[in-house]
Design brief:
Radius of gyration: 14 Å
Structural class: mainly alpha
Number of domains: 1
Order of helices and strands: HHEHEH
Oligomer: single chain
Number of strands: 2
Mean pLDDT: 91
Number of helices: 4
Largest sheet: 2 strands, parallel
Length: 117
Amino acid sequence: MLKRKIEQKLIEWKNTDGHKPLIIKGCRQCGKTFSVLDFARNHYKNVVYLNFFENPDYASVFSGSLEIDNIVMLLSALLGNEAVFEAGQTVLILDEIQECPEARTALKFFRIDGRLM
């Protein structure tokens, strides 16, 4: 039942025109990452996943310019073939974003750009 409920909320978010970046909060180990990745794999052609806790080096992408094209270029260089960015067909998941305040600031620019949500 819970899986269906969160999946329905995620579908509603995806189908809302001009939706904002989604921040999911909850207690540790309750299935947030699993649910979001499952949804992303089933509803997007491309999924780019960054976990700032497991790989603190990802924070370097957000340490300079927060222009979306710059971030996409740096992520492409860092992740190689794992990072495919297609407007409207790619979702970017920033897990453990509290570990990188600059990435949280970048959400504003992702919202304005609108390609990767």
